[in-house]
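Homework help thread (please don't just give me the answer)

Our assignment gives two proteins as sequence + structure token strings and asks us to describe the second one. The first is just a warm-up. Here they are:
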Amino acid sequence: MSTEIADLTTTRTIRNPVLTGFHPDPSILRVGDDYYLATSTFEWYPGVRLHHSKDLVHWRALGGIVTERRLLDLRGCGDSNGIWAPDLTWHGGLFHLVYSDVASFASGYWDAQNFLTTAPAITGPWSDPVRLHSHGFDAALFHDEDGTTWLLAMSADWRPGRNRFGGIEIQQYDPARRQLVGQARIIFSGTEAGLTEAPHLYRHDGWYWLVTAEGGTSWEHQVTVARSRELFGPYQVDPAGPLLTSVGRPDLTLQKAGHGSLVRTPGGDWYLAHLVGRPYTPLGNCVLGRETALQKVEWPTGDWPRIPGGIPADEIPAPDLPPHPWPDEPATDHFDTPELAACWSTLRRPATDDWVDLRSRRSHLRIHGGQSPMGRQTPSLVARRVGAVHCALETVVEFDPGDHRQLAGITGYYNTQNWHYLYLTRADDGRMVLELLSCDSGRRTAYPHLTVDTGGVARVGLRVSFDGPVLRFGYDLGDGWRQLPVELDSTILSDEHAAQIIDGEPAAWGFTGALLGLWVQDIGGDGRYADFDHATYREGRAPY
């Protein structure tokens, strides 16, 4: 029997997570035979990362939707601010994308501006954004059977002593006028789990079904379902409890299960897309960040939706759809295209030609230096997500620094406060050297005893590798790879480590995940750049 025939006759499965690494808050959508997953991107461009599937088993990256400052301006954006919880829907021949741009969460003020953009195709062109309300984040559209469209959102309450998560509100949206109309009203106050957010509304079996996230986005996370015969409620909560949660099950591979959205196949099968985390130790740090998983949902007529055991499974039955694998992503990016490949993201500014240059030198990525590692207006970091416990990024760089203000190298990165960085720079005596610098919660550590004199070599190989809780750097001066004799803590590049609560108030959140990147600084503004010949990403154990 041929492999192709066997694949069609054997029961296939979906292995979780379907999107590994930093891919939280999934919004899933089917249009015809195509399935799309949109996920949060926070301070990274392109905003709203998008994946595409034909069978829910195989997914390919399409890059991002919000690619221009016209749609989003992240200059000065704080760590884990920016785009939260996008919502993707299809109505009236158009894709609709709603996203929240959260400017602050300090002292109980969220400052979340919600936007809507539309496009005739998933690849665009996307319309100029419509400013919706700023009542709260996690906004989502619901297109009712009568043709009306409604905006749902978490309703924030800044007042001291009040519940900051003030319930789920709804307000009508007029597509013709491109604005909200009427008054917003609260339709659901949540359960005792609290922190009610991430609303998605569905019409099925004569009911309105409200799916929300509760319990916070960490270990107490859950998916709550409530239903009503009327749009405005009252909504009755499923008496059986959460549709999905990992609470009380530290033995599960997939933790933090919550923030879900539903999709139905043409054959009538239901699936839930939701976020998960995979800690390195029980309830420990999740270096991979929050990832996207799928669960099979049983939904008998007249009954509530159910997931077996109410817990996230590592493997589930796939729908009865023709298998549709995609070509594997090449391990090496030779930078032969005029734009960055879909695997790459850029920090706080889109990849425009003034600093990301793929045209001036054939098969090279030229990165013009930006601000310091702490800078939030014009950093020059091109990075990709860490997708496995064991993985590495390797590159070759050409760089001619003038002084200590100019640096170029490779990094294991989480945010402005947490990173490890191996870079080329110019020493005071004129030598070009490799130096190592780490930052843990804003506190920098230098390793002067590990400084390497490059001997004036024009092309230097650099490598950063993740080996579980250990991060290592290597270099090649043309005579083979050598490893820096130090093992660094990769677990500081995690949501858990980044989060800080001071006097009961969130001083910092951690919502992203670890990245591997190519980083260039020109702190003195002298116009220096670095050329990267290629970048190779591999997963799995290797003799680093």
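The one we have to describe:
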Amino acid sequence: MWLLFAFVGGLSMKQLGLPPLIGFLGAGFSLNYFGFENSDNLQALADLGITLMLFTIGLKLNVRDLLKPEVWVASAQHMLIWVLLVTGVIYGLTYLGLSYFADMTLQQAALLAFALSFSSTVCVVKILEESGEMKTRHGKIAIGVLVMQDIFAVLFLVIAAGKTPTLWALALFALWFARPILYRIINSAGHGELLPLTGFLFALGGYYVFDLVGVKGDLGALILGMLIAPHAKAAELNKSLLSFKDLFLVGFFLSIGLIALPDMEMVMIALLLCVLVPLKFLLFFATFVQFKLRARTAYLSGLVLSNFSEFGLIVAALAVGSGWLSAQWLVIVALAVSFSFVFTSLRYKTAHSQYLKLKESLRQYESNVRLKEDIYQQPDGASVLLIGMGRVGRGAFGALLPSLGDELCGVDADPQRVRKLQEDGLKVIVGDGEDADMWENVDTTDIKLILLALPSVDDTAHITQQLRVAQYQGKIAAIARYDDEVEKLMSTGTDYVFNMFTEAGAGLAEESLRMLSAEGKYQVTA
């Protein structure tokens, strides 16, 4: 029944062009309505999904990104200002005579404001992954903020729950020196079914080792992922766990709806709390531009972080268990979290086009000083740009390099990947193809062809549209996996679309004939 309701809900939302997670949330409330209750099995799946998600985040995380002021200082500043403002707002509601607010103390209002200060790791990561923006500038800022919030969560649990780490927690620092052993295990696992099993072992092992010494287990999964991140097979390991993680996270979304069945007053109060979501966005935007981020980065990062977190449920549950809040508040917070997921999913779906409409008014808040990561690089001397330097992009780059030489330039949004490719002697620059500001600041006068080698057809279509809006006059070519994707890209103005599967077969046949031609057996025609 869980699977049936989740499937119908997710598929329904997808047919409407909305993220499936909205359907999963609705499925949870529907199951609740029909008398189903949360169970240990479902909760175990939900917990496993969150643990795997944090582990995979760690696989893609760079510790140096967390040490930047625009991440850790901005996170702390945003949380402090939010708690002060929202405490005042919630305490002010006590004068409206609403039943659930009537007897609320200032301390209870502050606790509720703190619970709502966190952004949802599950929701944010899901949205960024579906849009292919995990490694973009704004994606990394958002993930960094989430990690800092997770650290604040650990501190809160230590103080509020009295869960003090044991002295053995100091031994966790020895994990840094255990990296060679971890790397050797990954190398020995190969590329088959043993690789995802290794990922499960590391994720759950990290969780239980940290939990054993009195530290939040989820943080252990995250840190173990971070330790493995520099390994060459980290990306492959992440991809092997992707389907498992997504499937188990369905359990998390269902479990939210199964917490309790609300009454109409609870629904209205939850919607009232969701009025604060735009305030969260405005605070994020103001904080990010204060730390000299570009308006686009601040806008997209703030928008995807504008929701309430599943950690709010943990805070509410702890408060209810300790007698600080009534049990009804757990249901209200669960509803507010669910509604905020829907808000973020819907708003972020058109985030880039929103920015295009608002960019002139938003840019006036930018600092005149640019951070190093926000300075646009120019493809000097290039006539062909290849956007997306993943496996397909690197393959295309290698095939074109002998013919084009320095006239070929690669572009990728991941600075680490670009750095490695540059060390290999390739002409590659950092750039986010979906960044409308980039196409206004990068000189494309001499660019005759732009190749889009991106995994998401929506991202490819969006870049094509932005290039046309920026008056790019050259040709655009892209890749697709399915026939319907080819049609979609052609309709957006792409000049030529390569079907990955069909073209791969044709390329294999052509290269085979060339080998035979070298032996004088067959003649290859163009």
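TA reply:
I won't write it for you, but here's a hint about the kind of observation we're looking for: The first helix runs from residue 2 to 15.
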